[in-house]
Amino acid sequence: MIHGITVLLYEKRQAGTDPFHAPVYEEIPVEVPNVLIGEPTAEDLVNELQLNGKRLAYTLGIPKGDTHDWTDATVEFFGCKFRAYGDVTQGIEDLIPLCWNKKVKVERYG
Known about the structure:
Elements: E1 5-17, E2 23-38, H1 42-52, E3 56-63, E4 74-77, E5 80-90, E6 100-108
Antiparallel strand pairs: 1-2, 1-4, 2-3, 3-6, 4-5, 5-6
C-alpha cells in the first residue's frame, strides 16, 4: 500500500511589528502526516531551472483535506529544510482515487 511520511511544515504567523510598522513573522513547526515525496525527472529539473530559475529537489503530494498554506513555506523532511515555490496544484478530490489531491514543488533551502 502506498503511504507518505510525516513532514514538518513551518507556518508563518505574525508575531508583531518592527519600528517601521512592518509585520514581523515567526515560523511555527506543524507536523503534516502522510505526505508523498516524489523525485523529479531529469526533464523536470531542466524545465524548472530554465523557466523559473529554481533547482527543483522534490515534488510533494499533499493529502486530501489538508488546509495548511504551502505557498512559499519552509518544509523539513529527511533531516533537511526545503522551500516550497510556485502555486499549489490541486485536483478535484472526488475524481482522484488515492489519498492525495495537491502537489507542491520544493527546492533545497538553508
